Amino acid sequence: MTIPTLLLVGCGKMGGALMRGWVSSPTPPRIFILDRKLQDAPAGCTIFRTPEEITPDVKPDIIVLAVKPAGAEAMLSSLKTVLGERMNHTALLSVMAGKSCEKLASWCGRADMPVIRTMPNTPSCVGAGATGLYASPHVSQAQKDLAIRLMEQVGTVVSVPHEEDLRTVIAIAGSAPAYVFYLAELLEKVGQDFGLDAHASRALVRGMIYGVGKMLHELPEDAETLRKNVTSPNGTTAAALSVFMKEEHWPRLIPEAAKAAIKRSRELDD
């Protein structure tokens, strides 16, 4: 199998997570990084500080755009100038929460630019990401397969049929690690407030979340069945769930949180 060449544009939180996931995968791609602030990169990666530093030998199969949405237009304009004809032989893979395929293609100066939009999440840095992926009509099957293969190196990939579906992906997977981290934060604090020391509370909560994730990943039952299996009638778990499951609590708050994430994703398109 030919080793793909990537130009990773932006190596902040998400770009850095992807880079760490890729370099630690069994078959890492060849990675060139464009980032002004990155001090060190893993062995085998080359860093450029500005687009103008990109050398003529850099011929990426995919440009991975991991900059903030506000800087995307200027960055793609610079890359178009620097790469020239090389832009005609690459696909653009965006990991930004916003900016449509059509808009990204226009910033590349090509209406028919192959654009792939993905919504990965930060567990990609430990090879356990969950990514939604949409490929525009101008993306070839080979380019889509390469994008899926790259994202599979850092976790689970779900290809969605409509670009609009990525908004839902953001709400239930892209932003969702923060929801789980917040739950862990609150549970750790409760443990300490009720008498456990910080180390014990942290170890118990993190072990619990790891175990639950492992069960969801490895067992065939759906989440509802697993919940019912661990909820004895009139037991302690049932008592706690009776609070969470009140109509004004989780059944209302979870959809509201998802709607807030979707609303913000639309605002980022402007």
UniProtKB/TrEMBL annotation:
Function in brief: Catalyzes the reduction of 1-pyrroline-5-carboxylate (PCA) to L-proline.
Cell compartment(s), UniProt: Cytoplasm
Family annotation (PANTHER family): PYRROLINE-5-CARBOXYLATE REDUCTASE (PTHR11645), PYRROLINE-5-CARBOXYLATE REDUCTASE 3 (PTHR11645:SF0)
Native source organism of the sequence: Bombella pollinis
Keywords associated with the record: Amino-acid biosynthesis, Cytoplasm, NADP, Oxidoreductase, Proline biosynthesis
HAMAP family on file: P5C_reductase (MF_01925)
InterPro entries in the record: 6-PGluconate_DH-like_C_sf (IPR008927), NAD(P)-bd_dom_sf (IPR036291), P5C_Rdtase_cat_N (IPR028939), P5CR_dimer (IPR029036), Pyrroline-COOH_reductase (IPR000304)
Entry keyword Metal-binding: no
Name assigned to this protein: Pyrroline-5-carboxylate reductase
Gene Ontology molecular function: any one: pyrroline-5-carboxylate reductase activity
NCBIfam families: proC
Enzyme Commission (EC) number: 1.5.1.2
Domain of life where this protein originates: Bacteria
Metabolic or biological pathway, per its Swiss-Prot or TrEMBL entry: Amino-acid biosynthesis; L-proline biosynthesis; L-proline from L-glutamate 5-semialdehyde: step 1/1
